[in-house]
Amino acid sequence: MDGTSKFLLQLVTPEKKSFDDVVDQVTIPTIEGNITVLPNHMSLVTSIKPGELIVKQGSKETNIASGFGFAQITGQQVSILTDLAEEAENISEKEAEEARRRAEDTLKEKERLSSEEYAAVAAALEKSLVRLRVKRRHRLKV
Fold this sequence. Notes:
10 strands; 2 domains; alpha+beta; globular; five-stranded antiparallel β-sheet; single chain; five-stranded mixed β-sheet
């Protein structure tokens, strides 16, 4: 690996290592806004929010719906721990739409939900909306 032009990206969810390869750059949805990481980026640890990870390897671009988590950036490695990592081409629009509807229906009954249940359903809604947005944005590419 040429240390000046590429770096290692590792994307890990509770279920599996979703991505582990050398890349040219990655754009990450942080709570402060999107950041694009290039080789030799300054060290940083940041929270990430549901959004789209954009991974570039030469002319190839991989678009990944991501959830809540953390990113650790060092000069030659980016490690992302998240509760959702699904490539656009693998997202089922029907399943994501059904999850969105279920979450919205549940939130309509918020007086029955504890604050913890409400937060969990709101987070599920946000992740289903991200999955839909990423899938629909890249539907024509796949």
